[in-house]
Fold this protein.
Amino acid sequence: MSQDNDPLHAIEKMAVNEDLVGDLYGFYAQEFPEHRRFWEDLVAEERKHAKILRGLRDMMEQGGDIQYNEKFSVQAIDFVMNYVQREIESVKRKKPSLLAVLSIAKDLEDSLIERSYFDVVQGGTSKLQLIFARLVQDSKMHRGIIQAMLREQQSAG
């Protein structure tokens, strides 16, 4: 099985991406100390997701009726990871505006949902499906929190 069709590889990439998004939000926390708590809460959520995904990968390694979902694109993960890495480099070079980073964060959370990011596998146990559903629910919550902060900042601006 090629790595592009290996759900374990895909899930590890998803975990790495969650860590990268957490790193980006961590840079935002440093750049916007007045909103440090907001960003640090999101960092903690991204780290939690990475840990859950790695636990899920370990659980899948032990077997089960799990099939790779052919509709899922590992390239989508690569695209998001490259985007996040470019954003991290950009933040290191020049402080962006709060509105800009909120828009980027909202777009990131949207991309994770709209690209069916958590649909990497089919089948498996109901526990596995519940874990993926929770990750999707959390991403939607993140998007809502970010959208609220974005609207607040737009109104204040």
Observations:
- Residues 3-156 form a domain with the Ferritin fold (CATH 1.20.1260).
- The longest strand covers residues 66-68.
- The chain has one domain: 3-156.
- The radius of gyration is 16 Å.
